[in-house]
Amino acid sequence: MIPARALAVYDGSGIDGSVYTQVNKWVQSAPHWLNDVIKVWSAFGLGLFAVFMLYAWWRARGADSATMAKVLASPVIVVVAYAANSVLKGQIEELRPCAQIRGSVSLETCPAAGDWSFPSNHSVIAFAAAIALWFVSWRLGVVATVFAALMAASRVWVGVHYPHDVVVGALVGTLAALVLAPLAGRCGPLVDRMRAGALRPLLGPGELPVMARGYAAPGTRSY
Predict the structure, then answer these.
(1) What integer pLDDT is reported at residue 206 of this predicted model?
(2) Is 21 exposed, middle or buried (0-12, 13-18, 19+ CB in 10 A)?
(3) Which of 40, 94, 162, 206 has the fewest CB atoms below 10 angstroms from its CB?
(4) DSSP class per residue in 61-129
(5) Using CA atoms, how far apart are residues 124 and 120, in angstroms rounded to an integer?
(6) In sequence order, which residues have a C-beta less than 8 Å from that of residue 22 and are 6 or more positions away?
């Protein structure tokens, strides 16, 4: 039985509950191995975005300081997006579909009332990281965005979010990155000073000035 407190919160089933129900039917008829793979990805896949950011940092050690500034800012952007989304969640208080729609199946333990559904934190984190990485390397951004979309879809598949939860979560993460990543690029002079100090081994020497690139060591290239 749905708790009395839960009945007082927002019911998002009127938006796209029918779509959620249809996806849930596919889940119930899907092969167990597929559900298991999606369940594991949904639970642990966010770690891949940390790997993407570490890879971006490794490559940016030889790039210009503005690029390195954007790389260093990417986890900060994720944290800011997550914090903003948490405030929004607390204002809307939408009950999870697995607790609202009778007969639905959740591949994860359905979160209790108080762990609200809208917007999806997983989608916010994945898209904030992915879009921030577009400002570092478009190739890496493309790959990360594909995995961000898979993360968002998985949250609906496992039964803990409505489709609109993950769509709005993706928009929140994207907006945060679009606003903050360009601002981070203006911190290049700060990275220059950091590279001149004790952090040089971690941040790299940076890209050679244009006039000096002809004297770069063989095989050296910009990010």
Answers:
(1) 65
(2) middle
(3) 40
(4) TTS-HHHHHHHHHHHHHHHHHHHHHHHHHHHH-BPPHHHHSTT---SSPPPPTTS--SS-HHHHHHHHH
(5) 6
(6) none
24 has pLDDT over 70: yes
Q: What is the pLDDT of residues 43-79, one digit of tens each?
A: 999 999 999 999 999 888 887 888 888 999 999 999 9
Range of the domain at 110: 48-196
Per the structure, the count of domains in the chain is 1
CA-CA-CA-CA torsion sign (79, 84, 90, 94): negative
Domain assignment of residue 39, yes or no: no
Q: Are 134 and 28 spatial neighbours (Cβ–Cβ below 8 Å)?
A: no
Would you call 49 exposed, middle or buried from its count of C-beta atoms within 10 A (0-12, 13-18, 19+)?
buried
Which residue(s) pair with 94 in the sheet? Answer: 10
3-state helix, strand, coil split of the chain in percent (to 5) is 70, 0, 30
- The token pair at 132 is 């921030």
Q: What radius of gyration do the chain's Cα atoms show?
A: 21
- Residue 41 in domain: no
Q: Is residue 203 part of a domain?
A: no
Helices (H) and strands (E) in the chain, counts: 11, 0
Whole-number Cα distances in Å, 142 to 2, 129, 145, 150 = 41, 11, 5, 13
Inform me whether the pLDDT recorded for 6 exceeds 70: no
Asked whether residue 25 is domain-assigned, the answer is no
